[in-house]
Each structure stands twice: as structure tokens, then as C-alpha cells.
Amino acid sequence: MNQITGPTGEEPLAVDDLDAFKQAFRRHAAGVAAVTSLDPQGKPVGFTATSLASLAAVPPMATFNMSQVASAYPAMTVGNHVAIHMLGPRSRHIAEKLAADHDVRFAGDHWTPGPHGLPILSDVTAWMVGTVLEVHPVHNNAVIVVQIETGALGPEDEALLYHERSYMKPGAIDA
Amino acid sequence: MNQITGPTGEEPLAVDDLDAFKQAFRRHAAGVAAVTSLDPQGKPVGFTATSLASLAAVPPMATFNMSQVASAYPAMTVGNHVAIHMLGPRSRHIAEKLAADHDVRFAGDHWTPGPHGLPILSDVTAWMVGTVLEVHPVHNNAVIVVQIETGALGPEDEALLYHERSYMKPGAIDA
User: Fold this and answer.
1) pTM
2) Which of A13, A66, B34, B72 has the smallest count of CB within 10 Å of its CB?
3) Which 44-83 residues of chain B touch chain A by CB within 8 A?
4) Residue A33 and residue B28: Cβ atoms within 8 Å?
């Protein structure tokens, strides 16, 4: 393990230490999305994701990362469908619900069945439905590549962020 | 192409249309990072990334997405080293510099050589150095998986966001 001091005297960071790695990523803010799908038994599964990223616009593709022990992971098979939802401060309760115990994530009226029977979450700022194109397991986690096929915009809202262990929203730099 | 109207009367979104896909992702805010490396000729390359995501903490791994036509893509070979920098509002000029024409991205004194000769950018809130573990080409783009080996924290700053085509920072939801 090397500790390296940066060019301008930064505090050294031991990044093979779990806390130190998390500390670095805590300086990075992330948008909050929710991914839902149906597992092989047809049961709704889903989770709150801070790793959603655009991969390409033509064809429209997105990626997210997840743990292989997540309750939604059995749904992530090539060709299966997923719904990706963009969340705003108004749908913060959805983010909290989908981050709770997996048994209660779909208990309630915060979703309705949509295309392919997928759970479509209410009050989201946008949702997209696509097909799992690639699954890349890496150690105990996986990168999921989704090709987007359709979707809809929801009511306008600001964007929901997760940063410093809190839900936040974007603000002006000079404010 | 199907247009689907959502359960609560959302505006239909034709997501195989480039603008519509971008419109959905414009409702998603993203943290801003900068990735640097050395290309096969040893020349500094890099770019501003809004796709940086944590993949795992043990071992510490991160992912980002990029175009295969990016000037930095030739550096993304398994085993090569990359530096990933977290940016704050104070280092917004770095984000702009690394998003400018690739010929001028390293013209200036905004970086110094670091571990493995990698360009380490100044005034960032954190930087991490790692090894390219996997490269997954998807159409004209690619998902890059990096295993982090070391790094340092920089001066404290808020997190830099890119949202609605502007640089922003996180703010309180109830503010």
C-alpha cells in the first residue's frame, strides 16, 4: 500500500481502505435514479441507483452498476426488460422506498404496471424502458448495459441528488 | 417506434429520437470528474466525464463511459494506468479545459506529473490512480472499469455538477 502525497500537499489517502475510498466518492455528487424490473418469477424488483450514466445517444444506451447480491440482480439477464426512472425532490420518497428492505419496496400505490408489465414508478420526472444488452460481472458487482426503447416524461421537477449522505438538488454556483 | 403515454398522462417521449433521449437525461444531474492518462506515445490525454460511478468498495473499483473516437480512448487498454479526479466549483476551469479541443487540454500549468507519469490535475477535491481492469466496447462507445490503487484528497470544496447544460453545485432541497 503506497500513500502518495499530492503536488500541493493534500492529505494522503489510503484508498485500499474502505473508508478512504468512500471518502473520495463522497466528494462526488450523483444523480438519483430508480431501476425496476421483473425477476424470473415475475415479481417486481428494483433499487435506487446513483450510478446511472448515459453511454450513447445513437442507439440510446445507458449503464448502471449494482451488487450481484441485490434482490434485482436475478432480473438482469440479457434480453430482459428494465425500467429506468429519473427522480426529483418530489419523488424523494420513491428513492427512499426503493432503498428500503427489498420486501417492502413495492408495497404501496407508488407504481403501476407499464410496458412488459414492468413496474413504472409514479411522480418521476422521466422514465425509460429498455432491454438488458450486456451484463458484465466484476468481482461481486456488475455493470449493466441497457438499450432504451421507449419512455415518457413526467411532471417537471428539479433533479434529485445524493451527496454527503443526503438528498439534495442542483443549485447555482454563485448563489 | 412505440410512443407510450405514462400512467398519469405524461408527455409521450419518442426515445429513439436523439433529442428525446437527451431530454430525459437532462432531467438527471451528474457529478463532474476528469479522467487523465498517457496514450501509447506517452502523450497526456484526458476528458471531462459525467459518467463516473463507484462499482465496488472492496476492491475499490469505478467505471466511466466514453466514446471510442475520443482522443483518450487509445490509452484505455487493460493494465494501463488512469487518474480520476473529483472536481469542485473551484476547479470548474479544469472541467472546461478538459472538455475543450484535445490539442489544448494539457497546455498550461493546471497539472503536474504524478504516479506512473500520469497527469494529476491541480485544485481538484480528490484524485485516485488506478489500473484499467476491463474495457467493454459497445457500438461506438465503451465502458471502462478501473481498479483504484491510490490517491489523495485535495482542498475541500463543494461538488461540481453538470445539469441543464450548466455547471452547478448541490443545494439543500428545502432551501
Assistant:
1) 0.91
2) A66
3) 50-65
4) yes
